[in-house]
Structures are given as C-alpha cells and as structure tokens.
Amino acid sequence: MKAFQVNAPLDYRIADVEVPTAAPGEVLVKVAFAGICGSDMHIIHGDNAFVRFPRITGHEFTGIVEAVGEGVENVDIGERVCVDPVVSCGRCYPCRIGRPNVCTAMQVIGVHRDGGFEERVNVPAANLHRLPAHLGLDIAALVEPYSIAANVLDRMQPQPGDRLLVYGAGVIGLTVLQMARAKGIEEVIVSDVIDERLATARELGARHTLHGSRDDVEAEIMRLTDGEGVPLIADAACVPALLPQMLRLASAAGRIGLLGFNPTPSDLVQLEVIKKELTLVGSRLNNRKFPEVLELLASGALDGAALVSHRLPFDEMPGAIDMLEHHPERARKVLIDIGAFVPTSRFTSQEPSH
C-alpha cells in the first residue's frame, strides 16, 4: 500500500509499505482523508524531539473500519470514524486526575507511532469516534484541529461578555476564532502579519483584525477596550518574543493560553503577572474534546468547509508540502484524499469561494 514516509529531516516520499493487520485491542482503518498540520512540517524539518525516523506522519484523519483486532467489541466493520491521536496510559498522575492529554507515557498517532498518511492504519479502538450520518469524511478530518481550539478555550475559562484576542490567523488561529464564536464569544480580535489570513479571519467572524507589522497593536487594543485590556488571549502565533506584549495587553484577571512548542525562552515580567493576577495556561493537544467538536460540526455551528483551501490526491502531497513551505499565504487547511490513489503529475488546488 502507499504511505507518506519521512525517512529523515527533509527526506520524504510516497513509499510502498506493507499492509498492517489489526492488532489486539486495535482497529484497522482504511483512511479516507488526512489533513496536513504545522506539526507535520516540524517533523519533516526534524524539529520534533519525540519522532524516531522513519515515520509515517498524519494525526488529523478519518476513514472506514476495515478490520477489528482480538478483544475489540462494539466496533463494526464499515463504520465511518475519525481518530483522536492521543494515546494515554491511564495510570500516571495526569491520567488519574482526568488530563490524559499530558500523560507521562503518551503516544501521539503520527508522531510517536505511524499515522494517517497511509492507506490503512492500526489505531486503538478506544480512540475511535463514530461520525454523525450527515457529516462528511472530509470535513470530519478537521475534528482534531478544532479540538485544539476547544482545549485552549476550556483552559482559559471564558466568562460571559469576555473579549478574545487571537495572535495568529493560520489554521489553529482560525479554529480558535470559530470555536470562540460557537461558544458565544461575540468580540474576537485577530492579529497576524499576512493580509490574506486577516481577510479570512474577517470572513469567519473576527470583529477586528490588526496587522502585526503595520498597526500599533498595543495602542489599538487599548483603544478598542477603553484601556482595560483583553480578558482572554490565545497565542496561536507561537512566537515566544510576543509574550511580554501579551502580558501588557491582558486585562486584570486575564487569562493567556499558550499553544507553542518553541523551545526559545520568553521574557516574563513578573510585575505584569502579579499586579493583574494573570493566569498563564499551557494547552497541549486535546483532553477528550472530540465529542464536543463532532456535535458542533454536525449542527453547523462550526463551518469546517471554510477552513479548507486545497483537496489533493495522495500523490500530490509532496507538492503540497512544498507549497506550505514556500507559499503559506496560499493555503488554509490542505486535505489529502487517501481513499483512492490516482497517479498524476500535476499539483492542483480547490480554492475556496469568498
């Protein structure tokens, strides 16, 4: 079968690999769609310390159950599913207190073990989520990125009437924007340095957008909030140097949600944190947010189609990687159609209508 395999940093290709068999406690899924994530790009560059090469990447995917392993119950062949990539031990301290997304022995499908950029993949049966009947396999591939947004917002504990400032209007920033709107946060401000992304944020409901290079972000935020600052700040730009500005822009009793995995140190001004009694929270992956996201997608509260800029056949994935590498402004979420491998020699895109 075909798989997108990263053999070493910057060494990747679509390769022929053996078809796996359903392991005990696991389910063999025939993959339909998989989304390319920024973390996949980090793996390709060799910037993820958890990865051992060669690795088949992909942690945002859907498919059809093709076989079940020994001991698996209540899973039927032919069911349409999406897969939570967080595999936890259930025994360590985080697991015992209900936070398996930071399990000390955690494995992430597509990072620690092979993922969804292959025609068939083994996954733990406990990680499957059935799709609502009218939710397409393509849109359901977006459940995982939306779960990131649901998790960081949950960590920040929004209150009625709160404003939200989102740094970064890439895919994760846009999912945070959409999720916030779905949860009733009416005023969302988005900052980015790419005009196309800011335009998309406005289309998806941002009340205000700020260009990080051209606008005086701090002055504008204080103007928009009458000098009070912003109760909620989500860092989807993941630039450590921005933390001091976030501390200044947060209102008293504000909450800042950090999503970046950048190891570069950040300056933290303790005075800003203490005088306003700020809360800084990290947010990693998702803590059992798939059911919530599936419900919101199925109800139409989240517009998954608005995030998708490209739908490409499997063999065009190397071209998609090149585009995301050199022209990120051209893309939102890139979905790869794994369901039918059709050799072609061209790179195509399906641009969203505006």
Task: Give an overview of the whole structure.
A hairpin with a 2-residue loop joins strand 1 (2-8) and strand 2. The chain has eleven helices and 18 strands. The relative contact order is 0.15. It is an alpha/beta fold. Strands 3, 5, 6, 9, 10, 17 and 18 form a seven-stranded mixed β-sheet that branches. Helix 4 (143-156) packs across helix 10. The protein has helices at 38-44, 93-96, 137-140, 143-156, 171-182, 195-203, 217-224, 243-249, 270-275, 290-299, 317-326; strands at residues 2-8, 11-16, 26-36, 55-56, 61-68, 80-83, 86-87, 107-108, 120-124, 128-130, 164-167, 188-192, 208-211, 230-235, 250-258, 279-282, 308-313, 333-337.
Shape: globular
Separation, N- and C-terminal Cα atoms = 37 Å
Tell me the structural class.
Answer: alpha/beta
- pLDDT < 50 stretches: 342-354
- The tally of helices reads 11
Query: Helix and strand string, N-terminal first?
Result: EEEHEEEEHEEEHHEHEHEHEHEHEHEHE
Helicity, as a percent range: 25-40%
The profile of the biggest β sheet is: 7 strands, mixed
Number of strands: 18
Strand proportion, as a percent range, falls in 25-35%
Global mean pLDDT = 94
- Rg calculated over all Cα atoms: 20 Å
Helix and strand arrangement:
Layout: E1 2-8, E2 11-16, E3 26-36, H1 38-44, E4 55-56, E5 61-68, E6 80-83, E7 86-87, H2 93-96, E8 107-108, E9 120-124, E10 128-130, H3 137-140, H4 143-156, E11 164-167, H5 171-182, E12 188-192, H6 195-203, E13 208-211, H7 217-224, E14 230-235, H8 243-249, E15 250-258, H9 270-275, E16 279-282, H10 290-299, E17 308-313, H11 317-326, E18 333-337
Parallel strand pairs: 11-12, 11-14, 12-13, 14-15, 15-16, 17-18
Antiparallel strand pairs: 1-2, 1-4, 3-5, 3-9, 3-18, 5-6, 6-10, 7-8
Helix pairs in contact: 4-5, 4-10
